[in-house]
Amino acid sequence: MLEEYQSIIEQFDIAVKNTYKGRGAYILETDQGLKLFKEVKLHPDKIKFMYDIEEHLNHNGFNNVDRLSLTKEKKPYYHDDENKYIMKNWIKGREVYFDDEDEIVVSAKNLAKLHKKSKNFRVGAKYRTFIRAGELENKLAKHNRELSRIRNKIRKLKRWSDFDIMFLSHYDYFKEKAERALDYLIHSKYQQLSDINNKKVAITHGQYIHHNILIHNDTLFTVNFEYCSIDLPIIDLYRMTRKVLEKNNWHVNIGLKLIEAYNSIYPLSKDELEVFFYLLCYPEKFWKISNYYFNQNKAWKPKQSVIKLKKLIEQRGKKQEFLFAYKKCIL
Questions:
Q1: Domain 3-90 class?
Q2: Chain centroid to CA 308: how far?
């Protein structure tokens, strides 16, 4: 199965016993345990950054991550004339269920442990390009401008699709939420928190959602650090919380349990909890759906975009109920 990659795999100091496909890659049974092998489009510096982060976490006791394997030349990737390849530890596990309260709580605690063990990562000049703390205001301002451009594009169309009509009908509501959340963020302690984080250095996974949290024999494994960066831990918590709540119709108790579970291990300050609240207020999913729809080939999945936007609109009331409960119980 892997004949075409045989010479590349031989660059890693392992003996392969069996191979099969999985998760868009190859799973290898080796003399050093289960490995995942795949081609990546990442910059070499990003791969080295991933490697150093995973080693830092492992050194500090956060062991259940898919650590990158080194080649015989002691590099965390192999690079031929055109492509880059990585090999990393793997486990036979399933994705956690974000509709199961117990697994949500365990996943939140696992994230808190990751952030706690990531402290004091040595950045150095070579990794300063991966610092993201402090960029959020500009990022959300850009999203807001993109929403305005999308509206203007639709208005110029001669014929409107179902998505176009739905977008315009609810644009004012979501744009007002976006502008208000950004204004709150600008007047918050976000920049001060970012400055502190950039000195003490905490690591964010970048995509801490169910696809990247595997469970095997009641043990969680955190995988796929391709989007890792140096940023405020609440960014990871926000992404996880939003994904969980969207899957559970913004169920108040589930959301509060998630945050309390995380906070029991990695306590957040009042300033951090406020910034987290403003992030939840921002209608990122509205921007994401709209941006995808208008920047991809509409022939691909236009119906799915309509379904997603409709669901988002239907959840508005439940989201506001959760935000009210959060403000009352936590802030």
A1: alpha beta
A2: 19
